[in-house]
Structure formats: structure tokens, C-alpha cells
Write a structure and sequence with these properties.
alpha/beta; CBS-domain; elongated; binds adenosine monophosphate
Length: about 150
């Protein structure tokens, strides 16, 4: 029997208990220049961060790879272009999100094909992110708990 089938507790865990709340999440805004986005990405050490609009609603995400690809010239990176291009011009417009009230298994399914998923409220306001790390930590906890029963 799998850990999930064996242990009812994991079914009771909600996304709200595993997520990184918005104030701890590095993000950029739609109208920021790529220069700012690259700075945030390099300084934070993350490969991608959420993009929010002026009302703090989720608009997508932006990654180092997309930025570097955008300024890649024939023989060099054209870094001078970083200040002319806006985040909204090149970002990934995937607005997939999950609610705080969603279950553990919904969270797990959401991060199978992406490193994190944004958590939003009913109106699309950004509440935080759910990361693969958080899901894996919860699975690890459940694994050892069920082993020691
Ligand atoms: P992790 O599972 O912790 O490695 O996180 C997966 C991805 O989620 C990272 O590569 C980042 O793109 C994003 N991420 C995690 N924590 C944060 C954070 N505090 N701020 C912004 N993005 C984050």
C-alpha cells in the first residue's frame, strides 16, 4: 500500500499549511525592465519568480533562461538591451494557480511539471507559492511517521 493510501493524515493537509506566504516570496512586476528582473533572480538565487500586476494579481512568471535567451545576440549577450525590454514582453504568461484550501494531492499534482505553483485567492490576488520542496518535505514526514507506526 502507498504512503498516501495508508495514511489518512496527509489527506487532511491543505496548501495553506505548506505554502511560502507572499511576503517571503521574491517577485517582479509587469512593467519592470528586464534589468531589474535579472537582478532579483540573481540576488535571490531562484531560477524563476512570479510576475504580479499593479493590483498584486498573478500575471505569470519570469526565468533567468528566458531573459538570457532574449538578449542573446550572434556572438555575445547584448546586456544593454536589458533596460529597454519589459518583463511583460517576454514573461511566461502561464497563470496556473491553486487555492489555499486545496488538498495535498492537488498540490502534488500541480508541482509535478513545474518547480512551483502560485497560490491565489478567488479574485486572483497573489497569496504565495507552493514549491516542490514543501511537497517533498511533507511526503518525507509522512513516510517516517507511517514507518514508525
Ligand atoms: P524549491 O522547491 O524550494 O527548490 O523551489 C522551487 C522554485 O520555487 C525555485 O526554483 C524558485 O523558482 C521558486 N521559489 C522558491 N522559494 C521562493 C521564494 N521565496 N521567492 C521566489 N521564488 C521562490
Amino acid at each position: 500500500m502507498s504512503i498516501i493510501q495508508e495514511n489518512q493524515q496527509i489527506d487532511n493537509i491543505k496548501v495553506s499549511q505548506m505554502m511560502v506566504s507572499s511576503e517571503k516570496v521574491a517577485h517582479v512586476q509587469l512593467n519592470n525592465p528586464l534589468e531589474h528582473a535579472l537582478l532579483v533572480l540573481v540576488k535571490s538565487g531562484y531560477s524563476a519568480v512570479p510576475v504580479l500586476d499593479s493590483e498584486y494579481k498573478l500575471a505569470g512568471s519570469i526565468s533567468k533562461t528566458v531573459i538570457l535567451n532574449e538578449i542573446l545576440g550572434l556572438e555575445r549577450f547584448e546586456v544593454e538591451r536589458l533596460s529597454d525590454i519589459k518583463v511583460s514582453d517576454v514573461m511566461d504568461k502561464d497563470e496556473a494557480s491553486i487555492k489555499e484550501t486545496a488538498s495535498f494531492i492537488d498540490g502534488l499534482n500541480a508541482v509535478i511539471n513545474r518547480p512551483f505553483i502560485c497560490v491565489t485567492d478567488e479574485e486572483g490576488h497573489f497569496d504565495g507559492i507552493l514549491t516542490r520542496r514543501a511537497i517533498l518535505k511533507e511526503l518525507k514526514k509522512e513516510y517516517y511517521t507511517s514507518k514508525n507506526k
